[in-house]
Structures are given as C-alpha cells and as structure tokens.
Design a protein that fits this description.
about 0% helix, five-stranded mixed sheet, elongated, 9 strands, mainly beta
Amino acid sequence: MAPILLLLSCSDSNLARDGGADGFVPILQLDPMIADFGAIAETETAVRTITATNIGDASLTIESFELEGSAAFTLLTELPASLGPNESATVDIAFTPTSQKLTADLVVTSNAVASPIVTANLRGEGLYPALRVSPKP
C-alpha cells in the first residue's frame, strides 16, 4: 500500500496561536510570582526585586503597574514603557511593616494578548515586641 500524503491549507496563515495578526505576540512573565519579605522588625525595611520579562516574540507595551493592598509595600523603581522580545526589567519593592501579617499585589497591565493583566503576590510580617505583665492581674 502506498503512503498517503495529506496537505492542509489555511486561508489566513498569518494568524498567531493566540490571536496576534502577524503571527508574533508579546507574553509577560513576572518572577517571582510570590515575593515573601519574611518577618522583620517594625522599624526595619526589606526590599525585594521582581523581574518582568517579555518571553514573546513581539514588543510588549506596559500600560500600567501598581501596588494594590497594604500601604506597607512601596514601589522604589519603575518598569519601562516597553520591552522588546526576550527583554527584562526589574522593579524594586520595599516592605516596612505596619502590623503583623500584610499582603499586596503588584499588578501589571500590558498589551499581551493572552494575559493582559499579570499579578505578583507580596507578603510580609511585622515583628512587634510582646508586653508581659507579672504577676498576672
């Protein structure tokens, strides 16, 4: 029996796997997706870095990035307005505890077709001195 050759045709060969018109798409990746600042004293500040990388093959436009949640987290640096294919940039975030367990999110909005909003979770804990009374009242 002779092998069968099957040819497939597509009327629009320029459609990308997730909707990009020219076959190229930007894809945003944040690393780490969870930034744990640990437990620190109330008078201390911890800094963590999150890397934003365009792992796609088209230019990525960063429309906005902001922190949502506890005011104990603050942005120290900014992301650029755009990242080329395989380009990375970092953003530094500071944590100065105001109470015991705190959380926030770094929310980045971009022109990435499949996931236009990417979030990294932030968490930290404040250490506060305990007061002990002796004898117990």
